[in-house]
Amino acid sequence: MSCYICGQPATSQEHAPARCFFPKGEVKGELTKVDSCTAHNEDTSKDDEYVRNIIAMAIGNNEVALSHFLKSCVKSFIRSPKLLSATTKVRQQVYYQEKEQKEIKPTYAFQIDRDRIDLVMRKIAYATYFKKYGTPWNRELAIGTEYLRNDGMRADDFGLLIQSAKSVLETPTFEGTNQEVFQFSFQQTESEDTNDQILIMKFYEGFEVWVFAQADTTGPKL
User: Fold this and answer.
1) Cα separation of 52 and 17, whole Å?
2) For 145-191, what is each residue's pLDDT tens digit?
3) Cα 140 from Cα 5, distance rounded (Å)
4) Are 33 and 14 in contact (CB under 8 A)?
């Protein structure tokens, strides 16, 4: 057995995504696990909880996300006031309009730790690639999403790129045994090297993250 990040002998296994993303009692089949060495089996449980809470709170997710937030995420805030503070310390009221709805509704936008989110997303991406292809993803990865906004409440450059790509690409076919929580789709680029693919990950059937392999790199790199 070899590590999903570096290919060195594995000493343990990691869930991908972390177990905390999945509601208790609603898991279908085996969760995805990958082999990991000691160095890359980093204890990121607090980061996983933080990112899970951010995603579960996002507008546009399914009922599983709402239920999981009320049952698990709120408990994590009660258990860890520091986590609650880190998640909601800086906030502002904003307004949104759901798709195919005319009503404009108020909600809150929170300042996020983007580095923390990107770290967790890279770990999930590397593990997903390793599980599918049986080898480490030999690229550094850039994380993009249109669901996180800048200070002006606009999509960043990656978010705008994703919006443009979605307007011309066919709807991807997703894989995953628990698609109400996590599903993924690899998209081959002009390169025939599987390392140069784009990975689309979707959480709770709403929150999408696009993972871009960086050309001329020889990752993996967290």
Assistant:
1) 10
2) 987 766 666 777 878 888 888 888 888 999 998 999 999 999 988 88
3) 11
4) yes
